[in-house]
Amino acid sequence: MKYSAAGYLLDKELKYLQGAVDEPNRPLTAIVGGAKVSTKIPVIESLLQKCDKVLVGGGMIFTFYKALGYDVGSSLVEDDIVDLAKSLLDKAKDKIVLPIDIVLADEFKAGARTKLVDANKIEDGWMGLDVGPGTMDLFKKELDISNTIVWNGPMGVFEIPEFAKGTVAIAEMLAEATSNRDAVTIVGGGDSVAAINQAGLGNKVSHISTGGGASLELLEGKVLPGVAALTDV
């Protein structure tokens, strides 16, 4: 059995990603975003065992906030995951870094009214759609001392310009870490790849993963049986 060209490239890419995560040049920092924490719980649990820090953004943060007892307004929350999120925070201690300020909107659309608030001061009728500048400063302090950085998932609703600043800032930080300090920077997941390319920085990081679900499973700690579906007999 031999690999097709696509299978060979994917296998090579996954080995690169696995090597960077399992035998990293430390400190190793992961940035995890996206809408729902339920789809990323296994990823976060696995990364907590491997990483020095896990920076969390995206819609999933509001489930964590609710677990901490914060009001979240109209923000996205998975109520059935709140207890699990609380347990994860308790186990992680200071390894998980949550945003400290949030960009709110009164509607989920371009042109909505917006305001910036501390993470624990979200009011009724408002929803969080991006992380704020204070959070970006906080995340930058962690990334500035990281020698290996893995990013999966946007920080906000980057498709709407008003709520793309946090995601673009992460893309810029990874590009800076790569060029200024020779840090190993890896971007995986469709939305993250789309965001960094949208920012024009796709060629400024060490590696962009095209493995999609396979790269996510690898970050979850699953043993991949190979890329049999992409092989030629």
A few lines on this structure:
This protein is of the alpha/beta class and 233 residues long. 39% of the residues lie in helices and 18% in strands.
Q: Largest beta sheet: what is the strand line-up?
A: 4-3-2-8-9-10
Report helical residue fraction: 25-40%
Please describe the biggest sheet, giving its number of strands, its sense, and whether it closes into a barrel: 6 strands, parallel
Number of domains: 1
Structural class per helix/strand content? alpha/beta
- Give me the CATH architecture, please: 3-Layer(aba) Sandwich
CATH class: Alpha Beta
Helix and strand run: EHEHEHHEEEEHEHEHEHE
Count of helices?
8
Average residue pLDDT: 87
Provide the CATH topology.
Answer: Rossmann fold
Taking the alpha carbons of the first and last residues, their distance comes to 5 Å
Q: How much of the residues is beta strand, in percent?
A: 15-25%
Give the overall shape: globular
- Report the radius of gyration as a whole number of Å: 18 Å
Total count of strands: 11
CATH homologous superfamily identity: Phosphoglycerate kinase, N-terminal domain
List low-pLDDT spans.
1-6, 226-233
Summarize the topology:
Elements: E1 2-3, H1 5-22, E2 28-32, H2 41-50, E3 53-56, H3 61-67, H4 82-92, E4 96-97, E5 101-105, E6 114-118, E7 127-131, H5 133-143, E8 148-152, H6 165-181, E9 184-188, H7 190-198, E10 207-208, H8 213-219, E11 231-232
Parallel strand pairs: 2-3, 2-8, 3-4, 8-9, 9-10
Antiparallel strand pairs: 1-11, 5-6, 5-7
